[in-house]
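Folding Problem: From Residues to Backbone Shape
Fields: amino acid sequence; protein backbone structure tokens
RECORD BEGINS BELOW THIS LINE
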Amino acid sequence: MPKSGEPKQHVPVFVGSTYEDLKEYREAVREALHRLETIVHGMEYFGSKPQAPKEECLKAVNSSKAYIGIFAMRYGSIDPESQKSMTHIEYDEAQKLRLPTLIYVIDEEHQPVLPKFVDTGENAKKLSELKEEIKKKYQVSFFTSPDDLAKRVTQDLPSVLEGIGVVLEQEPQTLVQADSNEILKRFWARPAKYAGREITVRCKVTGEVVPVGEQDCLALRLPLGDTIERKIEQLDPGRRVLSIIANGQIADWLEELPKESEVTVRIKLLSGTRSYVEWNEGEPEWTTRLVRGFQVTGLISEEVRATE
């Protein structure tokens, strides 16, 4: 933690998005990053502004330490040389530089978009292909309102900065989380509000590997066929029994973890809804059910590989 009076670290973060359709969202993210300047200084470069030369955007990406990509329903203005949009070019440059990356995609099911901000034809096809590429490479976070996006960035960015060696101050209230058990208790009561928070859980693995079902994967926006779950018992105060879920490389680790192993993991709280039909006296009645998820996003320590 920096000592009092020492200059804060300069950590430029590049924010890539289309412009006209995401003005309010960009402003919300700008405000979130400004609040984080109580921790680090020089947080944002915003790309894809109208008439911004490609060279300037690429220079800004090259000057950044991390990349945030925000994708909605527009592909963006096309560069005549590459036939890619500026937003796409900025993303490609960030990947070439291997910048730590956070990806946010608009939730098409829960956030209306004006027709004038929805691409069609060739640009829609290119955007769809880009989104599919991104979803295969990253754990995508879906956002609704500008406030929702800002909250997700505020919650996600500190761990990314810590991952590149940035020492964060602990003073700002925006980043101070309550005790993990308290957050978990609040999430159980108000999952929509606390979804996206990350908590640390020390636990013992008690269950076998089972697949997460189709409807729950859809509700939580997780890849079907690559998402697994295992039951755990918290070793912290609270002693709750939960089912933790994972996909990709983290699922590979969870799959091979011996039963009775004791580990400390970072868990992201997820929330969604699923609808199903029930028949009442021959008439269909649609019911909506809340789905909570506890997604492992990282291993902090593996204290005991297998208890005898």
